Amino acid sequence: MGQESSYKDKKVISIGVVSELTGLTERKIRYYEEKNLIYPERTNRGYRKYSFNDVERLMEIADHREEGVTTKEIKYELTKKERKEAKQKMIKGQINARFGIQKN
Q: TM spans, by residue (predicted)?
């Protein structure tokens, strides 16, 4: 059975709403996209769409920037965190497969 995605993963929020939610300007949000810190989806017309997870990540990025952390350092930490989460997910999947545990 396929893995269900959370509502937090669905890319349905426009950049204007994200700007209101985070307090970041649309220009700053686009800048973080250019730096590969976030990955919005694009509609057929080219509009960016964000998820609630993207909003949370942008708020985390903004907090780090206020503390003086560079975008390069943020990218490194986010990549490190993503690798760790992927590894944990893989191990959990291997354990579940080994013991015949199925997700419902």
A: none
